[in-house]
Design a protein that fits this description.
By secondary structure, the chain is an alpha+beta fold. It is about 55% helix and about 10% strand. Strands 2-1-3-4 form a four-stranded mixed sheet, covered by helices on one side. Helix 5 runs antiparallel to helix 6. The structure holds glutathione.
Length: about 210
């Protein structure tokens, strides 16, 4: 097995790096420095493995794979220790697996529209093109989504009770919102959840790669 992760710190490739560490797999890491992120993303060489110029990309042998959640599912299915990938997901034929999939995908599919609009209209677009109305709408969407996640978390430590890969998916978005100064959109128990997540040994490794 030769796994190679193309990683851009702070981006969704954090999820894959975090999972590789949780699984204890061997992998190569190719890190793009923050300052070169845009330039490398547009380069013809990088576009050969990532046609949209995005991160993450996982190479398994010669095969490039895109989409952080799909890559996580793949790694656990192919290289997981047992039928729960060593406890990183519930058994596939259990009712909990449905709930696990819900949170796994909610972390990306459910949250991306609001978070992308928020990023665009508070950071990425030139100031004169930003719409305060769109930023306010996006904040409302993100807040609604995290109220839902916070209600479901309740007093539990993790979304399914015990730590699973779904916490990596959702946890990355909590990390991102804090990073962009939008922590006020998060309920108190989600902020506490993040404090727990960042104690994990695998997160220490993610944090050390920049
Ligand atoms: N749904 C994709 C999103 C990938 C994505 O948008 N990555 C961003 C960073 S988080 C990126 O590489 N952006 C660079 C660009 O669009 O130029 C995933 O989960 O992997």
């Amino acid at each position: 097995m030769t796994l190679k992760l193309y990683h851009a710190p702070l981006t969704r490739s954090v999820r894959v790096l975090w999972l590789l560490e949780e699984m204890g797999l061997d992998y190569e890491l190719e890190v793009v420095p923050q300052a070169e992120f845009r330039k490398v993303g547009m380069s013809a060489d990088y576009r050969k493995i990532s046609p949209l110029g995005k991160w993450p990309v996982l190479l398994d042998g010669d095969q490039p794979l895109l989409e952080s959640i799909a890559i996580m599912d793949y790694l656990m299915a192919r290289y997981g220790k047992d039928d729960t990938a060593g406890g990183l997901h519930p058994k596939r034929d259990s009712i909990d697996y449905g709930l696990y999939q819900q949170w796994m995908h909610f972390g990306e599919a459910g949250l991306t529209t609001g978070i992308s609009m928020l990023l665009g209209h508070t950071i990425f677009l030139p100031e004169e093109q930003r719409s305060p109305a769109m930023a306010a709408w996006a904040q409302g969407e993100v807040e609604k989504c995290f109220d839902f996640a916070g209600d479901a978390l309740g007093g539990k430590d993790y979304m399914l009770g015990t730590f699973t890969a779904a916490d990596i998916s959702l946890g990355y978005m909590v990390f991102l919102l804090r990073l962009i100064g939008q922590k006020d959109l998060l309920p108190e128990n989600i902020l506490e959840y993040w404090q727990r997540l960042k104690q994990r040994p695998a997160w220490q490794k993610v944090k050390s790669v920049s």
